Amino acid sequence: MLLTRGDPAIDGFYRVVAPYYSDEVRERGDLPEWIALARRIEPRRILDLGCGGGRIAMALHADDPHREVVGLDISTALLGDGDPPFTFVQADMRDIPLDEKFDLIVAANDPFAHLLDDDDRWMAVAEARRLLARDGLLVIDGVYVPPQDDATASMPAGLVRERAIAPNTRLREVWRGAGEHRYDARYEYLHDGEAPVVAEARLRAWHCGEDALRECGARIAGALDERDFDPWGSRLVAVVPGWS
Question: What CATH number has the domain spanning 8-144+206-241?
Answer without folding.
Answer: 3.40.50.150
